[in-house]
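Take a look at the protein record below with the fold in mind.
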Amino acid sequence: MDPVKIFHNPQCGTSRNTLALIRNAGIEPEVVLYLDTPPTREALAALVRDCGLTPREAMRDKGDLYDALKLAEPHWRDDQLLDLMAQHPALINRPIVVTAQGTRLCRPSELVLDILPQPQRGAFTKEDGEVVVNAQGQRVK
């Protein structure tokens, strides 16, 4: 089986749910704690491109750093945003999952189901109580 990689923040509920969905398919992914081991700027640019996103779309737009840098202002160019995300990995939105079927920013977490190489093995309920996969391993919504 081809490897699966998740750029993960264990403090994020969406990231935890995404990792749990990967494991519910019987896959143990490579877990990259990107706040501790951030991707290089080049690798980040490739991830963003492979997700089909612009750097702004791949940027986390919440938090003190985003506000302090005034990143909501439209004058920022894509290359500048990538530079800032590479310097400050907390600005990278998460989780990003890479499989042979594609690369995806998994917000909401169930988007990972579209790119997993194996089906779900059983029911899955998110931390907030939302049922995503039924007992037969089928996506509910």
User: Anything to note?
Assistant: The chain has one domain: 5-133. The beta strands are 5-8, 30-33, 96-99, 102-105, 124-125, 131-133.
